[in-house]
Amino acid sequence: QVQVVESGGGLVQPGGSLRLSCVASGIAFSIYAVGWYRQAPGKQRELVARITSGSSTNYADSVKGRFTISRDNAKNTVYLQMNSLKPEDTAVYYCNARHPRLPSSYDYWGQGTQVTVSS
Known about the structure:
four-stranded antiparallel β-sheet
């Protein structure tokens, strides 16, 4: 049984930091690309950052220089370090795992973790 579980969300003041974790089980984690997405109320889900099996990364322009994605295959975990948080970063953050040779319909998603940036 495949499970993808996010953690680390919470309430933080503007300018603060949070580190999100995504732990996957039941899959050959090291070959999957993993992405962090977010969805704010009334908005579409958007890609925040992605890391490939080879640890290549890409980021949304809105988070470049503030967020860092990394992975620890020994722990089946991907992290999203979020610094200099802004109120517009408030959203539910979701972890996505994608097999390199399967279409997106085969993706695995976590249940999401809420991040709220507010004073």
